[in-house]
Amino acid sequence: MPRNTSLTSSSGSVQLLAFFGGTFDPIHYGHLKPVAGLAKIAGFDQVILLPNNVPPHRPQPEASAQQRLEMVELAVAADPLFSVDPRELTVDTPSYTIETLATLRKEHGDDCPLAFIIGQDSLLTLHKWHRWESLLDFCHLVVMARPGYKEQLDTPELQNWYDAHRVTGAEKLKQKPCGFIYQANTPLLDISATEIRERRHAGLDCSDLLPAAVEHYIESQGLYRQ
Fold first, then answer.
1. Hey, which of 9, 34, 140, 158 has its CA 20 to 30 A from 44?
2. Which residue range(s) make up the domain with 42?
3. What angle do CA 176, 129, 55 make, to 5 degrees?
4. Is residue 3 part of a domain?
5. Which Gene3D superfamilies match (predicted)?
């Protein structure tokens, strides 16, 4: 669970909490380093990682829910910016972001600014998400650039929706609890979990792609071997 869910930080300023969901099969530097950079740009006080159990739009993970949770916890154990919320791993139904956000909003109250972090790739397919039109009723969306993805949305209607909610100043994210889209120029790391699994399957080294504690755990569990 998040370490600190108060509305204000120790300095008395409004606290901005950010949530970052993913399969994390396994978690790697392509997740962690851009999000850490994003936290500085957008002024996040804390980033809460939300491992998915049953991702609705992609193949099922190779590692078990417990193994993926343990890898995420190992990856961020020494970094106070991050905490881990395992709530989506406790149910066997698909992890719909809108339902998680509705629960988080209820827990944190109506006034606390909440942000949900997505990549440019997810923004381009957001209209395929369950009840996507309601996401901004519960949070801000903070978008990270992704290598090789276009910037324009597929239809004029979707682009108009994006333009109507987009803000260019990160400071606005603390001025309202939800409703904005902020796009950040985060450091780009073209690393994927698929690449890591393929390298593991081929017996190749992955030490440059993920934290040492995660790599050691993968070895100890014999994960991603054919």
1. 158
2. 17-188
3. 110
4. no
5. HUPs
What are 196-212's pLDDT values in tens digits?
999 999 999 999 999 99
CB count within 10 Å of CB 172 equals: 14
* Number of compact structural domains in the chain: 1
Tell whether the model's pLDDT for residue 65 goes beyond 60.
yes
For residues 90 and 52, what is the distance between their CA atoms, to the nearest angstrom? 10
Q: Is 24 left (phi over 0), alpha (psi -120 to 50) or beta?
A: left
Q: What is the pLDDT of residues 113-166, one digit of tens each?
A: 999 999 988 899 999 999 999 999 999 999 997 767 777 888 899 999 999 999
CATH number of the domain bearing residue 133: 3.40.50.620
**Region 105-111 average pLDDT:** 97
Confidence (pLDDT) at 220: 96
Asked if the structure places residue 170 within a domain, the reply is yes
Q: For the whole prediction, is pTM greater than 0.85? A: yes
